[in-house]
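Saturday, quiet lab. Running sequence design on the structure tokens for the scaffold JK sent over.
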């Protein structure tokens, strides 16, 4: 899952981004509304965590921009105000969910994951395919009943492949979904991560390389 965090309180923004990355999400961070609009115009995000009171361009206008573009991106709006009228206004603008500050990080993570599921065809909370069971909420992976410990990027790649339900996912798509914008697009990190993931999942191999196209399970 790829997430954009838009928050002018830099310490909070960086803390949220760090926490979401530990949950195997690819996260970009910006600190004002103008930068958010630039990112939205060039990158595909599953979820935008959007502070409402932003400098340069207000969060409401960023939300409207997402709606006007017809993007499948879901918006979780943050605000220091807990008034019901503010929540209603934010939802009417086009936000998909609303979370007042201060918030528990566990709740933020759960809401981001719930919104991320709504950007694609609905799938069960626990994904199962080829003897693999993946629980995104608990960050657990089992193969034939055996628990497998994965690093965050390995988990993210496996989740993308599981959600594709047997269709081929290109290296570029994996890079976009599992890594943030600071990753060199010419790196071999996808190939190396897939190789390590195959080794950890064990025999027989379940990740198939489709020459010239990508990978599938």
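Result came back. Writing it out in full:
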């Amino acid at each position: 899952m790829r997430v954009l965090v838009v928050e002018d309180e830099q310490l909070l923004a960086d803390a949220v981004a760090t926490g979401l990355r530990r949950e195997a999400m690819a996260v970009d961070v910006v600190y004002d509304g103008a930068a958010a609009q630039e990112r939205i115009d060039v990158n595909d995000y599953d979820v935008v965590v959007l502070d409402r009171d932003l400098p340069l361009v207000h969060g409401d206008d960023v939300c409207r921009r997402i709606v006007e573009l017809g993007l499948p991106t879901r918006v979780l709006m943050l605000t220091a105000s807990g008034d019901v009228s503010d929540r209603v206004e934010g939802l009417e603008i086009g936000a998909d969910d609303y979370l007042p500050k201060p918030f528990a990080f566990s709740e933020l993570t759960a809401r981001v994951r719930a919104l991320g599921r709504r950007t694609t065809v609905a799938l069960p909370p626990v994904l199962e395919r080829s003897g693999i069971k993946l629980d995104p909420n608990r960050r657990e992976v089992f193969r034939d009943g055996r628990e497998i410990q994965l690093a965050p990027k390995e988990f993210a790649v496996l989740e993308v492949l599981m959600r594709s339900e047997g269709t081929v996912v290109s290296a570029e798509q994996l890079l976009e979904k599992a890594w943030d914008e600071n990753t060199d697009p010419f790196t071999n990190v996808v190939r190396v991560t897939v190789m390590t993931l195959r080794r950890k999942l064990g025999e027989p191999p379940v990740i198939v390389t489709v020459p010239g196209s990508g990978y599938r399970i």
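Notes for JK: The longest helix spans residues 10-22. The chain has eight helices and eleven strands. Ask whether to fix the surface positions before the next round.
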